[in-house]
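JOB MANIFEST
job_type = single_chain_structure
chain_count = 1
residues = 427
[input]
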Amino acid sequence: MEHQRRIAVIGLGYVGLPVAVSFARAGVDVVGFDVDSKRITELRAGRDRTREVEVKDLHHPSLTFSDDAKALQSSDFYIVTVPTPIDSARRPDLGAMVSASRTVASALEEGDIVVYESTVYPGAVEEECIPVLEAVSGLKSGRDFMVGYSPERINPGDKLHRFETITKVVSAQNPQALDIVASVYGSVVTAGIHRAPSIKVAEAAKVIENTQRDLNIAFMNELSLILGALRIDTGDVLAAAQTKWNFLPFHPGLVGGHCIGVDPYYLTFRAEKAGYHPEVILAGRRINDGMGRHIARECIRSLLRLKGRSGLVTVLGLTFKEDVPDTRNSKVVDIISELRSFGLSVQVTDPWASPEEVLHEYGLTLTAIDDLKPADAVILAVPHKLYLDRGWKMIESLLVDRGGIVLDVKMKLDRTSLPSAIELWRP
């Protein structure tokens, strides 16, 4: 009978921390490992900067946190959940996965299992990670230790779809290992387990999930460009179209973050390496990557109609989506850069974002909402609940003489109560 595995989770971000906590709540001994010593200090003190986990769960007796690789040596089931970003040339950056593989390999023993959850292109685990595990450990995969892949499906800020309540796709090198991987995840995931026939199938399944969503949003964004040229409100068109039972409920918007705006490039990279040049996927990426500039230029076009104004613009929200603190790959930055390239002054506020991280990553200084100067235009870039709850009353207070231009990027404001002195733009 298979013994209860001792789990180590490598990488304690938006994906890894909920995974570690879930297993700990089930009574499994879990070591949460991260190379960021500051992160480990915070977690030990009961503070989660991602705001995804409750304080009481961070203090669970089955869960320990460490930045010392030696702490992994008591484990025999390793789950790697490190970031897989793209570089400046939009090529996959597997540096964190390779580094994590070296760390795990230093603790590997016969009978251990390593499962990767990070999003990659099909073949990455077998081509890039397993050779590192073998070289550093001196062991042979498939014989001395086993490797699996189980794509993460964490949705930051989503309190309904959690690690335990999302169907888990699992894969492994052979049937025996797959049984173990399925059993381990099945002990905490209540939504069910789907066994993929190979690691490559599971890798491909993950990368196309976000690519499909990227393309659907790209269609909505292109539709908004067309309808804008025709002076038709996109939201009104979608409301009518969605009365049909099989019309998919997607909307235009900025596509940033560490998943949807990144993952398609992993698939296109591998496709081109195989000799195929993707067209539809890259076309969708170009449309989505251009939306920040488009929104900025619509703001400028509207401001040109105002007389005797300073051209100050306030941007509400910088995180990649509402009600999360994650600013990685935020496309709001594209709006700000484009506005400033035309000589406009921009002030930015966000109640969720870390001012230190924003300054470090983007060179931008956040302004507290109470310290904002009255502006000629307000761009509601990220519809945090705080903004929507305060509604037009708050937005009016941010404008010069309570009037001017408002750009509602995600069409969340109530048009029926639009103040008469405000000109509203929607995609």
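[summary]
The longest strand covers residues 168-172.
The chain has three domains: 7-197, 207-288, 290-425.
exit_status = 0
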